[in-house]
Amino acid sequence: MTWKASSLRRAFLGATIIAASIVDPRGALASIEVAEACATSGGNCGNIQTGPNCCPSGQFCQPWNPSYYQCINKPARCSVPEVGIDYKGQDLINGDVTGLKLPEDCCNRCSSTAGCVAFTFVNIGWDGQPHCYLKSGTGTKLSNSGAISATVTSSTASNHIQAKIRSGAAKSKAVNLGGWLVSEYWMSWDSPLWTGVPSTTAWQGEYNVMKYLGKTKGTAAFEKHRQTWITEADIKEIAATGMLNTVRVSVGHWIIRDATTSPGTEADMFAPGGLKYLDTLINTWAVKYNIAVIISLHAHQGSQNGFEHSAL
């Protein structure tokens, strides 16, 4: 850390700096400042005004709140975090993760998430809660007091069954997650989704079901269906068979509407919200239970074959 020679800086830092004055050979008054030694492991290492002090090797200065920073161990799978730095931009879709308490948790989530190579963790976010922002790169590095950013150095992805299948070290043994993110009445006839929908309409596919129910009622019906038709318990049970290592999930072209604000198209007729379930499947359940995922574009724009599963 570089210290500026100024009386204001010395007064601000108080006891953390020892100041002395000497006369150099040319007769000019010079000021020498010596920063204090690094904080000890677990010790106080600064605050929002002084900024982070150095910590022992393998540790970093964690901002717990504006008045207390502490030296703690760096995340095992990530680089030593940059404190007070925000990796601005390059956020993953649905990459704002809440419910994590430590940079270590954020690092672990990033290391097990497809496409994530860096993160920014904020202990006190806009809503007063911790936020973990997963990123595809380091973006633009900006100063942001309280932010902690780092890159992944050890990803769990290379040990996942998906990597083994791609390398040829293992064979894919799959089962379909049908009727979930693309509705198919013939296999999901007992879902609450179809309550009040005439069977003649149900057989015509998702587009016509949404036209019949209307945007508000239809969106609520499809949300309930997606919440319950396939759950984490199903993925756990699939993994527990010991014979299956892959799931195939069908999606419709409209799923990308969750990630765009472009002008409306026919996709606007469909119920939004499916992308978050696909994201949970790939980046949470499949990682947790070591299951590979195949995404099948089951319904193309305009309906590729006029059948129910392509939404007519």
Automatic annotation (TrEMBL):
SMART domains: APPLE, fCBD. It holds the Pfam family PAN_4. It catalyses: Successive hydrolysis of beta-D-glucose units from the non-reducing ends of (1->3)-beta-D-glucans, releasing alpha-glucose. The lineage of its organism: Eukaryota, Sar, Stramenopiles, Oomycota, Peronosporomycetes. The keyword Glycoprotein applies. One of its GO terms (biological process) is proteolysis. InterPro entries: Apple (IPR000177), CBD (IPR000254), GH (IPR017853), Glycosyl_hydrolase_5 (IPR050386), Pan_app (IPR003609). Residues 1-30 form the signal peptide. Keywords: Cell wall biogenesis/degradation, Disulfide bond, Glycoprotein, Glycosidase, Hydrolase, Repeat, Signal. It comes from the Eukaryota. It is an enzyme of class 3 (hydrolase). One of its GO terms (molecular function) is cellulose binding. CDD domains: APPLE_Factor_XI_like (cd01100). This is glucan 1,3-beta-glucosidase. Residues 78-154 form the Apple domain.
